[in-house]
Amino acid sequence: MEIRYSNHPQDVKKYDTEELRHHFLIQSLFVPGELKLVYSHNDRFITGSAVPVKEAIKLEADAKDMGAPFFLARRELGIINIGAKGTVKVDGTAYELDNKDCLYVGLGAEEVLFESADAANPAKFYLNSTPAHKQYPTVKAAQKDANPRHLGSIETSNERTIYQYIHEKGIQSCQLVMGLTQLDPGNMWNTMPCHTHERRMEVYLYFDMPENGVVFHMMGQPTETRHIIMRNQEAVISPSWSIHSGVGTAAYTFIWGMAGENQAFDDMDGVPMTEIR
Ligand SMILES: O=C(O)C(=O)C[C@H](O)C(=O)CO
Ligand SMILES: [Zn+2]
């Protein structure tokens, strides 16, 4: 498992492109036949992927890294499938996940196995995991079960729908909050006007992008912004002090996952457009 340490905003001001990408960009996901995990010391948030091909993939990590006998001994897990149909088996119970279906797996599940229905067209399971103190039930939600929130307008090129899956009024969890945002065709901007939330960190995974498309992901303190160029199926870590917003060369979808002091989605500190630099 790859480890990412935390960064002070005063240090990040001095980072060049390479160093910014090294600390915040996650490019190693969705390798066929492999489980990939990146452990961030920002709220001990694990970002990962599993792309089972012929054989099932087991969710596991070094017991020393985890400080626990098995992966979910002290953690909870959110999964969203961004590929073709697959199955997640949790302690022997099978949950079939279609594209954009979500599964929450609670603390204490000992065996989590990922399988694809068709090895030639595999499932692509995206994983977010955070420390947990209590067991909540394992629950599946399809996109139609998520709470939709329509925002933005075509005039500002940010018309989009936020689908909340794991959140205060949806699937219950200890601290993980997770969902996805789909841009309407012809719209390019997400999360602008932008915000920070010192109470929570956040990770974005951009996907459903054309091969030659890019997203300019904005980060940094509101008056010290930087950008990271992102390609399809890449994720980016946003520390609690950083804005997180992007503009693409074509419409795209992204999964957001958060952890920290609260689960209040609307607890954001909006950045006035007159102040951003
Ligand atoms: O499009 C948006 O706006 C979002 O999806 C915002 C994210 O969900 C977010 O940053 C929540 O804090
Ligand atoms: Zn946010």
TrEMBL record:
Protein name per UniProt: 5-dehydro-4-deoxy-D-glucuronate isomerase
EC numbers for this chain: 5.3.1.17
Keywords, comma-separated and alphabetical: Isomerase
Keyword Isomerase: yes
Organism listed in the record: Paenibacillus mesotrionivorans
Highest taxon of source: Bacteria
